[in-house]
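Run: sequence + guanosine-5'-diphosphate -> complex structure.
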Amino acid sequence: MSLWRDVSEATRTATTSLVEATTNLFDPTIRLGVTGLSRAGKTIFITALVHALTSGARLPLFRAARDGRIADARLEPQPHDYLPRFETEEHLAALIDERRWPRSTTEIAELRLVIEYQSAGWIGRNLGAGRLTLDIVDYPGEWLLDLPLLGKSYAEWSRETLMLSRAGTRLPLAAPWHAHLATLDPDGPLDEVAARQAADLFTGYLRVCRDERVSLSTLPPGRFLMPGRDAGTPMFAFAPLDLTRATAKPGSLHALMERHYEAYKTYLVRPFFRDHFARLDRQIVLVDVLAALNAGPSAVADLERALGDILGAFRVGANAWWSSLFAPRVDRILFAATKADHLHHRSHDRLEAIVQRLVHRAIDRATTLGAKVDVAALAAIRATTEATMRIDGDELPAIVGTPLAGERLGDDVFDGESDIAVYPGDLPADPDRALALGRDAPSPAAADVRFLRFRPPRLARGSDGRIAIPSIRLDKAVEFLVGDALA
Ligand code: GDP
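>> structure
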C-alpha cells in the first residue's frame, strides 16, 4: 500500500514541478530553503536578506546589486496561504525599534520576494526587464532528521531508539524515561494517558541529549523538539516500548503507540518532504560553528554528525527507494557558519576553512550529492565593530559591542547597555587543528576563543530615510544562491 502511495506521490510532485516550470518559463521562481538547527541564525538571516534586497543595500559581491541592475525588490503575498508567513516586519521592528533579537524559528514559514532586474547580457537586455520570484522557505533543521523514519516500522524504530538510549553517555540521561518505561506493558490495554506520559518523558530525554550536546543528530523524531503548530495532538503521543512481539495485539498499548507513530509519519513527515522539501531549488544550511567550538569536544563531534545527517537528506536517490522518491531538486547548497561578527575579520577566512573541512568530511560520507556546494562564514547582522586593544604593550585585534544583559566575562556581568571591547581570540590557521582542539581535551588554545553574545547594533535612519543593517559576507551568500538567476 505504502509503495503505491509513494509512487503516486512522486508522480504528483513531478507533475507539479513540470507545470511550475512550464508556466514560469519567462517568470522564473526559485524556492530557497533556509534551514539549520535551532538558534543557528535562520530568522536573522532571512530578515537581513529581505531587508538588504528591499532597501537597496550596498552588496558589493552580489553582482546584480553592485552593477545597479536591480530595479525593484518587494514582498508579495506568499504562494501557500495555509503556511505561516515569515513575519519580516515584526522581526525588523524588534531589531530596529527595540534593539533586541527577534523570536527564532519554531516551524515552517514562507515569504515571497519579487525582484525586477535588468539582465547583464545583450540578449537578456533586449528581451526587456527580467523578473525573479524568490520564495523563501524557513524550516527547522531538526525536521530533516525525520526522513529515515519513513523507511522504518514502529517496532524497528522502537528497538533502535531503545538500544541507543541504553548505551554510553545517554544511559544516565534516559533514567527518568526508562523508569516509566519499566512500568508499561506493551500488550496490556491501550492507555492514552500512559502513552502521553511516556512521550513527555521521552521528549525530556531528547531535550537533555540536545542540551548536553550528546547526540542531537542521531535522535529522531525531530519534531518532538520542534513540534510547530501540531504540538499536543495524538500524533506526538508515542515513545519506544520494550516489545515482546512484532505484531501488535489489537487494542493494546503497543497498537496505540504504533498508530500514533504512523500518523506522525503520514500527517507530518511525509507531507513536509513531499510538499516542501522536494520542491526546493536552492538551500542554505546555517551552522553555529562558533557555539560548537566554544562548547568543546563533544559539541564539535555532534555538529559534524548533524551535518552528515542533514547532507544525507540531500543525497539524491542514493538512499533507500523511499528516500529517492522525496529527493529534492536542489542544485545549489550553501553551508554557512553564522555569527562571524563574534570574531575579528582576521579569523573570518579561518572560520570558513573550518566549515569547509567539516562539510567535506560529511560529503565524503554522503557520496554523491548532485548539487553544487559552497561554504561561507557570515554575519547576517553585524553586532560588533573592530578596534585595536593595547595590553602590556601588545596590540590585540578586538571587537566592540554591547553584550546582552546577563552575559558574563570572568567576574563581570553585563547590563545590556554599555559597550565593551574584547579580544575574542583567533581561530587556528589550520582548520584541522581547530577541529582537533574541539575534539581533544580542552587545550589552552581552544580555551582562548571565547564568544560573548551581543545585542543587535544601534540602527539609525540615514539622510535618505533608509536604514542600513551592517553584515559580513551576506552579499557573497546571496550571489551564490541567486546570482546566476539574475545574470
Ligand atoms: P533560528 O531562527 O533558531 O535559526 O535562530 P535565530 O536567527 O533566531 O538566531 C538565534 C540567535 O543567534 C539570535 O537571537 C542572535 O542572538 C544570534 N544571531 C543570529 N544571527 C546572528 C548574527 O548574524 N550576528 C550575531 N551577533 N548574532 C546572531
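>> summary
The chain is about 40% helix and 15% strand. The first strand starts at residue 29 and ends at 36.
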